[in-house]
Amino acid sequence: MIAGALDSIAVEMGHKLARMAYSSIIRESEDFGCVLCDADGRQLCESSQSTPLQSGPIPGYIAGINRRFAELEHDWKPGDVVIHNHSYYGASHQPDVGFVVPVFYEDELIGFSATTAHHLDLGALTPGSCGIVDATDAYAEGLQLNAIKIEEEGRRNDFIWQILRDNCRAPQLVVGDMEAQVAACKIGAGRFVELIDRYGLETVKNASEDLMDYSDRMLRREIAQLPDGTYEAEGFLDGFVDHPDPSYKNLKVKVAVRVEGSEITVDLTGTAPQVDLPINMPFVGTVDIAIWVTLRSILLDAWTHDPVPTNSGLFRAISIVAPEGCIANPTFPAPTIARFCGGNIIADTVMRALAPVLPDRVGAGVGNLKVVAYSGFGGGQHWVYMDIQEGSYGGRYGKDGLDAVDTLYANTRNNPIEDIESHFPLRVTQYELLADRGGPGRWRGGLGTTREIEFLDDAGYSLEGDGSVTPPPGLFGGAEGTPGAVLLNRGTRGVLELPSKFPYRKAAAGDRLCLISPCGGGYGDPLERDRDAVREDLIDGYVSRESARTHYGAKELE
Amino acid sequence: MPVVGVDIGGTFTDFMLYDAASGAVHVHKVPSTPAEPEKAMVSGLAELCAAAGLAPRDVTGVFHGTTVATNAVLEHEGAVAGMITTRGFRDIVHIGRHQRPLHYSVMQDIPWQARPFVQRRHRKVVTERVVPPIGEVLTPLDEDEVRVAARELREEGVEAVAVCFLFSYLNPEHERRAATIVREEMPGAFVTTSADIFPQFREFERFTTATMSAFVGPKTGRYLDRLASALDEEGVSGELHVMMSSGGVASVRTAAERPVTLLLSGPAAGILGGQWAGALAGRRRLITFDMGGTSADIGIVTEEGVSEASARDTWVGGYPLLVPMLDVHAIGAGGGSIAYVDEGGAFRVGPRSAGAVPGPAAYGHGGSEPTISDAHVVLGRLDPDRFLGGRMRLDRNAAVAVVEKLADRLGLGLLEAAEGILTIANSNMARAIRSRTIEKGHDPREFTLVAFGGAGPLHAAEVADSLEIPEVLVPPHPGITSAGGLLTSDLKYDQMRTVFQLQGSVDADRLNRELDGLAAELRGWLERDGVPSEEVVVIRSLDCRYVGQGYELRVTLANGPFTEETLNQFHVLHEREYGSAYADPIEIVNARVTAIGRRPTLDSLPVASGSLEEALVGENEGFFRLDGNLQALRTRFYDRSLLPLNETLAGPAVVFHLDTTTVVPPGWNVRADRHGNLILTNGGAS
User: Fold this and answer.
1) Burial of residue B184, with CB atoms counted within 10 A of its CB: 0-12 exposed, 13-18 middle, 19 or more buried
2) What domains are there in chain A, each with its CATH number?
3) Residue among A8, A218, A397 whose CB faces B435 most closely
4) pTM: predicted TM-score of the whole model, two decimal places
5) CATH classification of the domain holding B558
6) ipTM of this model?
7) Which residues of chain B lie closer than 8 angstroms to A183, CB-CB?
8) Measured between CB atoms, does B625 come within 8 Å of chain A?
9) Comparing C-alpha atoms, which of A476, A447, A435, A460 is closest to residue A511?
10) How do residues B215-255 score in pLDDT, each as one tens digit?
C-alpha cells in the first residue's frame, strides 16, 4: 500500500511539472525526473513520466548537496528549497538542474522531495545547453550552482532568481520551468507528510526499507543465476572527428563486467583518458546511471518480469570502478556538458559484454542520438529550441531491433513537427525511416531516421551527437549497422558534410540541416533469417532488393 | 415511447426497457452470441418486449453499448488499411514520439511498430504542404499522385484509407480533396481524413487516430449495419443509436463514419449508469466503480458532470487516441483475477485472470489457481447456493483447495491468505481511485462510491474504508447498470479545431467564424438524426494555456460572440488546478464545440420491497477483520428484492441480488432507498 502511495505521489509531481512547464524539452520531450528520497537520500520511488537519466541521478544530487553543506557547515532547514547543478557534486551535467525540498516531520528531517529537468539555456558561451562542445572547462559551461538555497526557511531569495534571469538567454522559459520544478517539489513534500500522518513515521520507514530490500533481492536473484566470471567488450566514441590531435578521436570505452555470486562489478579500466573538451562523463550522475539502468533493463526487463519498484535498493548489488582521469571519471574542472552520447556508448558496451551469458536478453549495437540547439535573436529576444534525434536498437533474440527510439539509459520524446513550426522559424522538410541501413542479421538491426530541418530566418545552431564513425556492432554473426551522418544543404552553395559534434554555427535562411541516424547492428547470421521476414521487409521497403540478395541470400526473390 | 438499452458484453447481453409515458421499466439478461451478436440482441429484445406486453414495433429507439471496435484494436483484427500522407513523412505513425513505452526493457515491443494499423507497404506519399500559422498552402496538392496512390492501394487489396496531411487541422482542404479522389478510385472503401476525426495538432497522435479509424472502420460499419437490419427485420420502428466514449450517443451513420469514437462505448455507459443512480439519491459527487470478471473501471462524477480525459492522456490498447473520452480508468482486477507469489516472494493479485473459462476454481470448470472470487467463497461472503440468484452452484471445496495451496507458500493460514487476496486487490483499486481523485485535487472523503458490475458491490465497502469514503451506493439492478446508462444520455457530438491565437492579438472575427462553423456542422449532424432544432443545446469552449506551456485548460464561453476579456477566466482555472497563476500572455490553442440533442431519458424506477422477516434468508459464519483480528462473525444473509424501504440494518451482512452480491462489513450499515438503491454507510454516520 505504501509503495503504491509513494508512486502516486511521484506521478502527481511529474504530472504537475509537465503541465506547468514552458519549454518543449520538458513538456513535450519529458526530459525531467521526480523522486522522493528518505533522510539518507536514498530513492524511494519515481514518477513514471521521468526519463531514467533524470530520475536516477537524484540521490547523487542530494549526496552532492550534503557534501557541499558539510564543507560550508550549512544544514537543511524546514522551508528550504535548494537549486543544484554542479557536475562534480553529483549533478548529471550542468543543464540538468535539480531542485530539492527537505521534508520535515515534527522537526525531524525524514526525507527529500526532488525534481531535475534539462534547461534550455544556462548561460553557456553560445545559445542553448546542448552542442556546447567547445567548452574547455566547467566554467565555460555556464552557471554553476552548488547547493544554493533559493528559498531559505520559507523566504524566497529574489536576488538569486534575478541572477538566473539575467544569465540565461530565454529567461521566461527557463525561469518558468524552474518555478514549475519548485511547485512540483513542494507538492511532493506535502503529500509525503500526509502519507506519514496517515500511516505513522515508523510504518513508512519500515515499508521503505522493505521496498528497497525487495528490489535488491529481485536484482540479486537474477545476478546469482549468471555464471561467475569476467565478461568484456569495447566501444568507441567518435569524439571530435575534425580535431587535429588524434587523442580527441575514436575514444575507447572499455568494459569488464565481473560477476561474483549475487554481485556485479563493472570495471571501466582501459577507457580513454579525459580530454579538455566536454565529452567527459560525470562518474556520479551519468556513468553510474548508464550502467545501472542498462543492467536493470536486461536483468529485470519490464517486458518479461513482474514490475520491480525503482529505488536505491537496485544499486546495492552493483559496484563501478573507473580510474580517475579517464573520460568516465574526469577530474575537476574538466568539462562534461556534452556527455550524453558517451553515456550511451557505456550502456551499449555493458550490454554487449553480457551477450555471451545472456544471449536471449540483449541486443546488438545501438545507434546513438544527436541533439541540436537551434537559436536566434529577434525583437530583443532570444529563442532557443532543442531538437533530439533518436537512434535505434540492434537486433535482439527473436526480434528485430526497435526502430527510431531514444536508447538504453534515456527515454525522451520528440517534439511534434506541428509544434516546432508553430513556435520557431523552422520548417521540417523530411522525417522518415532510413530504409536499408539496419545491420543485416537473423534479427535485423533497427532503423534510425533522416530528419531535415530548414531555417526560415538567419539563425544559429550547434550539435552534439555521435555514431558517424564507428557503426553499431553486430552480434553472434550479425553484421554491423551503419554509421550516421550530418549534412548541411545550402541550396546552390552545395552540400557540406559536418562532423557529429560542432559548436555554434550561423545558418542562413534557406539552409537545411539533415541528420542521419546510425542504425543498429544485426543479431545472428543473416542467412538464417526467416524467409518470410526477408520478403516482408522487401515489400515494406525496409531492405532493398540488392540487400536482400547480397546480405540475406534471397535469390528466390529475383 | 418505449426505448431499450442494450449492452452487449463478452458473456451476457443486458437489456433495459423504459417507457417514458408509463414510467415502466423492464430488465433482461441473455447469454451473448459472440459470433453473431445480433442474434442475442434480437431474441433478447423479443423476450423483453413480450414480458413488457409490447410489440417490437412499439420500441422507438434502441441504444447500444458496443465493444466491437475495442476488440478489433485489442485483438488487432481489423481491415487491410492504407494511408496517404505528406511526402517526406511516410513513417510518422511508425516513429511515434520516439519514446519507448517501457523505460527499463530491452526486449519490449512497441505497439505501433510491432502491430501497425497500416503497414509501410500501404503508406503512400503525395506532394503537398500546408504551413502554420494559418494553414497557408505552401505546395499545392498533386492530385494525379493521389489518384495513382489510390489505384495502387486498390490493387493491393486495401479496404480502408486514412488521408493524413501535416497541419490539416489548420486547413483541411487538401485532405478533403484527396479523400474525394480516393473515393472515386476506390468505391465502397472506408475513407477518413485526420482532420475530419479530430482536427488537433500533434501529428503522430492525430494520424494514429485516423489510421485506427480506418483499421476498425469496415468491421464496425458492417457490425452496425447487421444490427440495424436485424432490428429492421424484427419490425423495431425506432432507430439504433450507439454510445460513444464521450458519453454521448450517436446515430449509427455518424458512429460508423467515426468508429474510433466508440472505443470506450461500454465503460462510458457504465459511468452514466452510475451517475444516474447517484442522481436518483441526490448524490452529485460520485466515484463509479464497475468491477466485473477481469477488470474494474473507475470514473469520476462531480457537480460539473462526468470527468473527461485530457486529450494527452487517452490511450487504447497502447495506442494514443485523440478523441473526447470520459475519464475511465481500467485496472486488471476482477472476480477472476489470479493471486500468486512472484519470484521475489511478493504476494500479488492480477492482472492475469482466469477469465470465463476455466474461471475461478469455485466455478468447478477446472480452474486451478486461486482467484478473488475463490477468496470470497472461503471467507463466506459468496454463498455457494445463492450465486447469481441460485442459477449457478459454487464449489466451496475447490476454492478452499486452491487458496490453501497459496497459503502454504506464504506460510499463512487459509483465512489469512484469503483475506490477503482481498486486501491486495482492494488496495490496488484504492490506489487507482486515489490517482483519479487526490492527484486531480478531489478529496475522496467528499464522494459516494457507486458500486456495480458482477463484483463491485462485493468490494465496495472495504475499498471505501481504505479511502475514508463515507458512503457506498449500489444501484438498482447492479448487474446491468450499463444498459441503464445507455438510456440516460442525450445525443451529443463534439468538434474542435486547433487555432493558435495569442492574447492581445486575437483575431476575434476569425475565431467567431471558426466557432460558428463548428456549431453549424454539428447542428447539421443532429438535424440529420431528426432532432428538432429547439432541442439542440450548443456549448462552446476554448482550450487555453500560458504561451509556452504544452498543456491546456478549458475555458467555457458564455453565449454571444467571443471577446478577449473572456480569457481572464483562465487565470482562475490555472490557480485552481496548479495552485498558481502567472502574468504571462494566454494562448488559445483549440476552439471546441459540443452540440447536444436532448431526448427523454430514464427517470426513476418502480421499486419492489418486502419486510425484514421475508428478506432474511439465512445466517452463517463470515470472516472479517475487526480490531486488527480476523474473526468469525455471525453474518446475516438478505434477499435484495425483499428488503424493506428505509430500514437501516447493521453489518456484517451479505445482500443477494439476482446478478451480484453486496457485502456489508462490520461497522457498516445498509438501507434500501425508495429509488431502488442500496445505501451503505460507515459507522454511526447513517
Assistant:
1) exposed
2) 2-199 (no CATH), 226-361 (3.30.365), 363-558 (no CATH)
3) A8
4) 0.91
5) 3.30.1490
6) 0.96
7) 578-580
8) no
9) A460
10) 999 999 999 999 999 999 988 877 899 999 999 888 898 89
